[in-house]
Write a sequence for this structure.
């Protein structure tokens, strides 16, 4: 290989590195997801304080609340991808699942207070449970794929997926406006990312199509994922714990308001 060709390859590598650096790291995706997540909390807590209780007699408050809630659905595919990416890179999958379980449990009380007026209500569950159930399904399917082959592999995988969907529907995980079933949709996105990960364009197109069908805005969330750069982007190791605590903290503030 001559020097000119080597120089070209180095230049190409630098360009690719520059593109990755300019894209959206895991940290930036989490910040974007947190902003959309905050809109969901604000739609049921802050908006009524600023614009009055949303109702047919208060179209301003109703409109702002609905717009905030619909915009917050952009976060669904972003968090689904972050879950898949976390599962792929974690060094301890049991601990990762336990962390999700703890966050979902802590978020449950203020979420119930905001949604039902009671600190505990078994008829509704916060969207983090959707991430937890999706993670359980993901771990089970991956184990099935590595353990079985042929028809048993697919039959067991289908059974696990159906169980995951039913968990989300029966427990009403993240049901919003009786339109967006966040838990079930999160599971669908995670499965798309898992099965189509080797085919980037097909994966993004399929996820975008699902997002478009589910009230448009999740498709916008998929567009953010298109610009990810696969870098972590953390400056401090404790940053991830801040994001774990962020949603329960937002809900608690909203519940107190």
């Amino acid at each position: 290989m001559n020097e000119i060709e080597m120089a070209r390859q180095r230049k190409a590598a630098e360009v690719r590195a520059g593109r990755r650096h300019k894209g959206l790291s895991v940290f930036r995706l989490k910040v974007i997801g947190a902003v959309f997540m905050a809109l969901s909390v604000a739609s049921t807590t802050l908006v009524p304080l600023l614009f009055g209780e949303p109702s047919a007699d208060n179209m301003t408050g109703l409109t702002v609340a609905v717009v905030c809630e619909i915009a917050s659905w952009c976060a669904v595919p972003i968090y689904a991808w972050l879950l898949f990416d976390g599962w792929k890179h974690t060094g301890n999958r049991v601990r990762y699942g336990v962390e999700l379980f703890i966050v979902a449990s802590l978020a449950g009380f203020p979420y119930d207070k905001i949604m039902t007026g009671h600190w505990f209500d078994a008829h509704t569950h916060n969207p983090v449970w959707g991430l937890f159930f999706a993670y359980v399904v993901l771990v089970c399917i991956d184990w099935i794929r590595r353990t079985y082959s042929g028809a048993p592999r697919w039959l067991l995988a289908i059974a696990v997926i159906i169980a995951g969907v039913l968990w989300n529907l029966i427990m009403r995980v993240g049901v919003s406006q009786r339109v967006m079933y966040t838990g079930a949709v999160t599971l669908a996105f995670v499965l798309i990312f898992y099965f189509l990960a080797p085919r980037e364009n097909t994966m993004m197109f399929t996820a975008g199509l699902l997002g478009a069908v589910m009230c448009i805005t999740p498709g916008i969330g998929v567009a953010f994922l298109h610009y990810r750069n696969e870098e972590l982007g953390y400056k401090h190791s404790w940053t991830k714990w801040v994001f774990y605590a962020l949603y329960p903290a937002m809900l608690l503030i909203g519940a107190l308001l």
Q: What stands out?
A: The first strand starts at residue 175 and ends at 176. Residues 1-9, 11-16 have pLDDT under 50 and may be disordered. Residues 3-256 form one domain.
